[in-house]
Design a protein that fits this description.
two-stranded antiparallel sheet, DNA Methylase, Chain A, domain 2, 10 helices, seven-stranded mixed sheet, alpha/beta
Length: about 350
């Protein structure tokens, strides 16, 4: 572990810094990061004051910009590059708006371009598991395109789908991790999952020990919303509501009850993992209200003293976009143990 003091990480699509926080906690030096979204950039700078941050679209980052940033920190070698190109265009939650020619689908190519410039020993790339079944407008699987791109850059790569509740995150969140290396002397492996499933209750309970928490504003609900919330049992959702509280609409001249998907009016259960944390509202397991952003961040394994910048909605989106730090830390420790 002493050697980790010399291991430097560069991060792209950094967002608020979930991936980076996990690697930092494992002992890596996060020397360079980048994102162009203002609220996430402000959050990142607040929590990682010693990291050189490029607030730029990755497509505009040049070799000179990277060199100048690293020279400021007197960094000569990047050992690991981490990042998660935007996943909204791959997720099943976006099926209705899925466009195979969405330009965000191709941002992984700029990620590979950063790798070619920096020449790290290892690369870690995160995305939604649905990426593995998505194809571009020419019917080519993105999975194969990514693997070929790594190979052309001089990296062998493998991937694994992680169920985060088996890696210390109290949340059902399936993510694919690509691990690539330029080293010829190692076998690519992944951290083993735990037999213990992380659940909501113990994590939320930790917050009760702290006062004056940041990002812990409670949403005040309209009376009709509060009435619905009160009727949702632990682990239940919209379909558990009595019929008179469900949404009605006219269809073919008749008033019908509207069906909703499983995260709509979802209440968490203390003895189960949370549903995937997104920008949607989620009901507290014990109280008749929605989770605060601090509670969402806790279920995402951010520490209580990690402060987010921006509006309530912007903070919620930062949390939803982030790689859970506990998952990132498990991956980082595996890299340290197996390869350094």
């Amino acid at each position: 572990m002493k050697m980790s003091k010399r291991l430097n990480v560069a991060s792209f699509f950094s967002g608020c810094g979930g991936f980076d926080l996990g690697f930092e906690k494992a002992g890596f030096n996060i020397v360079l990061a980048s994102d162009f979204w203002e609220p996430a950039a402000r959050t990142y700078r607040r929590n990682f004051p010693n990291t050189e941050f490029l607030q730029e679209d990755i497509r505009n980052i040049s070799p000179k910009m990277l060199k100048d940033a690293l020279d400021k920190r007197n960094v000569k070698k990047i050992h690991v590059v981490i990042g998660g190109p935007p996943c909204q265009c791959f997720t099943r939650l976006n099926n209705n708006n899925l466009r195979r020619d969405d330009e965000r689908n191709q941002l992984f190519r700029d990620y590979i371009r950063m790798i070619k410039i920096l020449k790290p020993d290892f690369v870690v790339m995160e995305n939604v598991a649905d990426l593995l079944v998505r194809k571009d407008e020419h019917d080519k699987p993105f999975r194969d395109m990514i693997l070929r791109s790594f190979n052309r850059a001089g990296y062998r790569a493998k991937y694994k789908v992680f169920e985060t509740e088996k890696y210390g995150v109290p949340q059902k969140r399936r993510r694919v991790i690509f691990l690539a290396t330029s080293r010829k002397d190692v076998e690519i492996t992944f951290p083993k999952e735990s037999k213990k499933i992380s659940v909501v209750g113990p994590f939320l309970k930790r917050l009760s020990k702290h006062k004056n928490l940041k990002n812990h504003e409670i949403t005040i609900n309209e009376p009709h919303v509060l009435e619905r919330i009160k009727h949702i049992p632990p682990g239940g959702y919209y379909e558990h509501l009595p019929d008179h509280l469900k949404v009605k609409k006219m269809r073919n001249g008749k008033l019908v009850t509207v069906k909703r998907y499983g995260s709509y009016y979802r209440r968490l259960h203390n003895e189960q993992p949370s549903i995937t944390i997104t920008n949607n509202y989620i009901i507290h397991p014990d109280e008749d209200r929605y989770l605060t952003n601090r509670e969402k961040a806790t279920l995402h394994t951010f520490p209580h003293n990690f402060v987010f910048e921006g509006t309530l909605e912007a903070v919620s989106q930062q949390i939803a976009n982030a790689v859970p730090p506990a998952l990132a830390e498990r991956i980082a420790k595996h890299i340290l143990k197996e390869y350094y």
